[in-house]
């Protein structure tokens, strides 16, 4: 598979759906072997197995819980629990006469069972919406829930979703992340439910054990609905074990020893070590992902555009790239260039130490006795957070700390892991934060920098940016979306709530025995199509 800048329009995943889930990976109809357990090394500690509550990628969750649709290896939406992707052409999407609202009809797959044997029905889809939008439920994101006005379930296999707006990104939000079992959860407190540790899904694997901070054990679901092209009952594997190993040095050690057979986020600076491990192969896969440096606007000096511009001018992306093995590429926009709505003329702040120093001088930030600048009693000294244990991020952090010191700004590492990192990220428990975002095939950028956005721990607010996001996220017209995208990219580049630094690639280390593995570039993770995997 290759990713090219002209790969697809932003609406292709919505307007050109496939009719069968089997298109997610084309595999030979022979030589498949059943049995064996696969051990996966994750670079983070899972906070919850509830796909709507987790603050991390849902790798383990994706093998257990399914949605109505999912993005395939080409970032194109295909049906999962639905029988087809709703489109205007097939009548699944109907826009109102005034062009302000829309209706989407899903036809559900028959004979799907939950892991406890209960039938999956349209009532579960409706309940999922009701549960996620409930103000009492603490979700990582409720995207797509407030835009739904009502849901009708005329029969067990039909869901009619009435939207109070036009939502071109419907496929990347609510019902794609996963469906919740009404018969088990209705009337319970979803915040404290045991579901958050041992979720019951419709996926190929079911959870048998979850030990917080250590591992998740899953085993084959024998009544899984999907079959291979040759008629084999899926999944092939007996189970998948997800080990949480935030320290990447330990992770690579276990890969070498054979305790781990798959790592989907190999650190760039350890790629050479991995490539030399007997029985392991490295796959370089595309990602809809980028690295960024964000500011906490609660700090008065960071709310000063002059300080943010100076910091942007002080960072030399070429050094960051070199420090990370040459794998990332420099960018100037949070819109990854593979998207058609990427604006190539987005302004950029060039690396220029002298310009950075002049900005700070002119704004009145003067060096103190220790060389650190200050103004009105506030020193430009900041806590700087990355996710602890991520070798790539910790290395980039040290590079940035040195580059900021050159212009009289002090940054002190204050790294966290697990739930502590997640809480700090969402609640603004930092001054500076360096990390990575990965999006869906149809991204919703307002969650990052829109006023009150679910991932906006920075306390950033810009009415002009909110308006541009609104235009981008509330029309089906590709030309209008592209124009709005150019507008919000320009605003972000000029107001700098974030500095987009580099794109990412996935360095996936896997045992050569694992077959039928295909990388997935989206935030739905590599595990959404794990049922055809087998060990040779």
UniProtKB/TrEMBL annotation:
InterPro entries assigned: Peptide/Ni-bd, SBP_5, SBP_5_dom, TAT_signal
GO biological process, one term: peptide transport
Keyword Transport (UniProt): yes
Source species of the chain: Paradevosia shaoguanensis
Keywords for this protein: Signal, Transport
The protein's name: Peptide ABC transporter substrate-binding protein
Annotated signal peptide: 1-31
Coiled coil stretches, renumbered: none
Localization (cell): Periplasm
Family to which the UniProt record says this protein belongs: Belongs to the bacterial solute-binding protein 5 family.
Domain Solute-binding protein family: 76-457
Pfam families: SBP_bac_5
GO cellular component, one term: ATP-binding cassette (ABC) transporter complex
Gene Ontology molecular functions: peptide transmembrane transporter activity
């Amino acid at each position: 598979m290759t990713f090219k800048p002209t790969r697809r329009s932003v609406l292709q995943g919505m307007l050109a759906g496939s009719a069968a889930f089997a298109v997610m990976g084309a595999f030979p109809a022979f030589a498949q072997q059943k049995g064996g357990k696969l051990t996966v090394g994750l670079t983070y500690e899972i906070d919850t197995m509830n796909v709507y509550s987790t603050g991390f990628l849902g790798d383990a969750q994706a093998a257990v819980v399914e949605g109505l649709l999912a993005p395939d290896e080409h970032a194109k939406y295909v049906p999962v629990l639905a029988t087809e992707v709703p489109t205007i052409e097939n009548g699944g999407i109907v826009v109102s006469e005034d062009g302000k609202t829309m209706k989407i009809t899903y036809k559900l797959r028959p004979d799907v069972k939950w892991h406890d044997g209960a039938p999956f029905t349209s009532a579960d889809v409706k309940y999922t919406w009701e549960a996620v939008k409930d103000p009492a439920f603490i979700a990582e994101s409720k995207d797509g829930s407030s835009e739904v006005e009502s849901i009708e379930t005329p029969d067990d296999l039909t869901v009619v979703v009435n939207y109070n707006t036009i939502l071109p990104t419907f496929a990347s939000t609510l019902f794609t992340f996963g469906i919740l079992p009404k018969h088990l959860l209705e009337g319970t407190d979803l915040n404290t439910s045991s579901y958050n540790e041992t979720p019951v899904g419709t996926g190929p694997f079911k959870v048998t054990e979850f030990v917080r901070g250590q591992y998740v054990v899953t085993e084959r679901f024998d009544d899984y609905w999907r079959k291979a092209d040759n008629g084999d009952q899926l999944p092939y594997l007996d189970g998948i074990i997800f080990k949480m190993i935030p320290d990447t040095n330990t992770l690579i050690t276990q890969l070498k020893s054979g305790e781990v057979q798959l790592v989907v986020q190999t650190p760039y600076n350890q790629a050479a070590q991995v490539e030399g491990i007997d029985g392991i192969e490295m796959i370089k896969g595309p990602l809809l992902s980028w690295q960024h440096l964000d500011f906490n606007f609660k700090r008065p000096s960071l709310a000063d555009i002059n300080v943010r511009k100076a910091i942007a001018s002080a960072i030399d992306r070429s050094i960051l790239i070199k420090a990370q093995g040459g794998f990332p590429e420099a960018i100037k926009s949070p819109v990854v260039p593979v998207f058609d709505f990427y604006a190539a003329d987005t302004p950029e702040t060039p690396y220029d130490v002298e310009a950075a120093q002049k900005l700070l001088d002119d704004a009145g930030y003067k060096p103190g006795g220790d060389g650190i600048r200050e103004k009105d009693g506030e020193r430009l000294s900041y806590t700087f957070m990355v996710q602890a244990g991520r070798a790539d991020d910790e290395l980039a952090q040290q590079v940035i700390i040195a580059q900021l010191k050159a212009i009289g700004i002090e940054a002190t590492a204050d790294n966290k892991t697990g739930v502590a990192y997640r809480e700090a990220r969402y609640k603004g428990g930092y001054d500076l934060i360096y990390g990575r975002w990965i999006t869906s095939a149809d991204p919703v950028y307002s969650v990052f920098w829109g006023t009150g956005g679910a991932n906006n721990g920075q306390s950033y607010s810009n009415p002009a940016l909110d308006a541009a996001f609104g235009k981008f996220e509330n029309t089906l017209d590709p030309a209008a979306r592209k124009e709005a995208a150019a507008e919000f990219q320009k605003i972000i580049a000029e107001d700098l709530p974030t500095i987009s630094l580099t794109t990412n690639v996935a360095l996936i280390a896997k045992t050569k025995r694992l077959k039928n593995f295909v990388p997935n570039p989206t935030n739905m993770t590599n595990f959404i199509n794990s049922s055809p995997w087998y060990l040779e």
